[in-house]
Every structure is written in structure tokens, then in C-alpha cells.
Design goal:
By secondary structure, the protein is mostly helical. 48% of the residues lie in helices and 11% in strands. It is built from seven helices and five strands; from the N terminus they run αααβαβαβαββα. The strands form two sheets. Strands 3-4-5 form a three-stranded parallel sheet. Strands 1-2 form a two-stranded parallel sheet. α6 links the parallel β3 and β4. α3 runs parallel beside α7. The longest helix is centred in the N-terminal third of the chain and has 15 residues.
Amino acid sequence: MYLARRIGWDGEAFWERFQLARRDLLTDGVGPQPDPVLAGRLLRLRDLGIRLVLCSNSRREGGEALLARLGLLGCFDEQIFDAEKPHATPKRMEGWSARWGIPSDAMLFVGDQGYGDLYAGLRAGARTLRVSPYPADDEGLWDGCIRTQEELKELLAAWC
């Protein structure tokens, strides 16, 4: 998004291009593929009483289409699109804490990059897990860093 703004793709121009790229991810053989093992592990965590929330800054129509394609639509207690991360995250954490009786230090934020996904959770006292194949200078800030979806599935299996 930063680079898009630097080259003049602000506002609707950015979102139009982003939606074109998102549509490409919904094409067979391109982008992430459905993983029934991952979906099963997420559902098992929910069965164990662990609350799962998906927060995405993408628009609902594209985000839900991608979740449906990946077989993950029913895996979350709550799905938030147009989430205004990281700015709206602290307020949402207060709401989850009050609604579900979960203190912030018992929450885990999982994301692929620091600023939008993890930093707000860290500031609010939550634990953080970065999942990305790409090294980053800020990896030392997070409670954990893993590189692949396979590592994520192993971690989820251990929690189940």
C-alpha cells in the first residue's frame, strides 16, 4: 500500500488495482490453495473454546470470496473486513476482552507483517506471532516468527 501511494495510486485507484490482484488469487492454480488440514485445525481450536477472529483491511466482497475459495469461511467466531488496522485494533481488543472475558495478555495476534497486523496487539499487551517466508528487521519484536503454512499447522496441532 505504501508503494502504491508513492506512485500515485491513492483511494479508489489503489482499491481497483488491489481488487484485480485479489481476483487473480481466486483463479485456479494461482495464489494460495485450499488446505483442509488448516481448516480442520482452526475448527478444532474453536471446539476447544478458543476464540478466533479474522481482521482484514480488505473489502468484504473480496475477502469473503477468498475465504470461501480456501474453505475457511466457517472457521472464525468473527470476521472483520475494512478493519482499519492498526488504528481500530485497541478498541476492538477492549470489546473482545469485555465480551469474552479474555485479558489482552491471553490474546495472540497472528499476522504476516508488523505494522498493520502485530504492532497494535503488542502495544496492547497481547502476544504476537509473525507468519511470513520473508525475513524482516523487526522479527525480534514478536513473541514468535515462523516461515511457512506447514509450521503454522504444526503449531496449531500442538495447541489442539
